[in-house]
C-alpha cells in the first residue's frame, strides 16, 4: 500500500523477541496504542474493565476522566479513584506519568494507562489549571465537548473561532506535556488550534466525514491541517461515526484507515476506538445533566440515529492481520497501530 520505512521509535518498545518479524509474531505490532477509551466516570467503576485492552494486546490506552458537563469535584474523584485502582494492580497496569514510562510498562508486560479530558470547562478559564491536571496523569485534552464554551467551539453548535482565552490554553497545553486533541471540537476552532499549536495536534478519535457522514466526523481540510502539524487521526470504532450497519468489524475500520492514509500518508493515521462499556450501578453524570443538549437528536443521536456499538479492542490483532492482507507492510501496520502516536507523545510529553 505504501513504501515501508524504518521507524526509529520501534526499537525501544520491541519485546524480547524483537528479532522476529511481525509475521512470525502473528502480526502483533511492536507497540499498540488506543488513543481514547471511556469507562464510567464513577469512583465505583471496576478497574478490571481495562482487561479488555489487555486481551487485545494493547500496550497503552488513554482513558477519559471528565467532560465539559462534569464538575471539577466529580472529575477529581474519578482521577483519584482510577489512580488508586491502577496502583493496586501493579501486576497488570501502570500509570503513565512520562514518556519513558511507556517503554518500562512494555518491558514488564503491563498495560500503560494515561488519562484525557474532553472539554475545558473544568479548567475554570485558567490556563494555569492545565499543568495541575497534567500532574494528575492527564496526557491529552480537547477543549470543547460537542458544545461551545469560553475556550472553543463544539462540533454540534454554531461554528465559532478559538477565543483569545483558547489561544492561551493551547500554549499552556503545549508547555505542560499534554497532547493537544481536537476531537468533538467545532470546525473553525479545530483549524485555529492547529494553526496556534507549536506541537503536533491529533484527532484522537474521529473519522473522515466523507465516509462517516456524521456531524462529529471531520472533513478533508481538518485532516490535512492535522497532518501538517505532524499529528494524526485516530480512527474511531464507534458505529454511528464509522457508518456501519452492524457492530463495526475489521473491513469497516480498514475502509476509514485507507481513506486517511491515501489523503495524508501513513505517518498520520492511528487508532482511537472510543469504547464505552456500561456497568450497573455506575453513572457518568451527576443529577441534572441534560443529555439532549450534549447529544442533540438533530445532530444524529437517539432512537433511529444508528447504532452505538464500538469495534471490540480484542479484535485489534485481527485488524493488524487484515491490514497486512490488504497490502500494508508490517512497518506500515506498526505505525498505524501505535508508533505514530509514540512519535507524537515523544514530541508532546
TrEMBL record:
Pfam families: Peptidase_M19. GO terms for molecular function: metallodipeptidase activity. Signal peptide: none annotated. SUPFAM superfamilies: Metallo-dependent hydrolases. InterPro entries: Metal_Hydrolase, Pept_M19. GO terms for biological process: proteolysis. Transmembrane segments: none annotated. It comes from the Bacteria. PANTHER family: DIPEPTIDASE, MICROSOMAL DIPEPTIDASE. This is Peptidase M19.
